[in-house]
Design brief:
Strand order of the largest sheet: 1-2
Distance between the termini: 43 Å
Radius of gyration: 25 Å
Structural class: mainly alpha
Oligomer: single chain
């Protein structure tokens, strides 16, 4: 469908970078090139690419720097994304019976309603 005439878009966007808002062109001279029916798909792709990569580039670099302080870059490279997730986050589900059997309650009883609520929430 065609763009409504009242919708004036430009292939540039604002992004907050460590608290400072900056305007970025996602195509050369973007803030001066209106989005048209002919270039709207490129606009969508460029804005999405920017938001998912460039807009968080410094934060991603800071995260990776911290990760590589703990785990050398060449060692991280041997893992698949799924393996890294498992190593950093653990199993996606909780073995509730195992957790209950290893839980020690101090000043609480398993029949206390707060403990019952806790196990109920854990089972969701």
């Amino acid at each position: 469908s065609s763009l409504p005439p009242s919708l004036l878009l430009f292939p540039s966007c604002e992004a907050s970078e460590f608290g400072e808002v900056k305007l970025y062109d996602v195509v050369p001279n973007g803030r001066h090139v209106p989005v048209t029916d002919e270039n709207k798909m490129e606009y969508i792709q460029k804005i999405a690419q920017f938001r998912l990569t460039n807009a968080i580039k410094k934060q991603t670099e800071a995260f990776l720097s911290g990760l590589h302080d703990l785990v050398p870059k060449d060692l991280v490279a041997i893992f698949t994304p799924s393996e890294l997730e498992l190593l950093s986050c653990g199993l996606p589900s909780i073995d509730l019976d195992n957790l209950k059997s290893h839980t020690e309650l101090h000043h609480w009883k398993t029949s206390d309603k707060e403990i019952q609520w806790f196990w109920e929430v854990c089972s969701l």
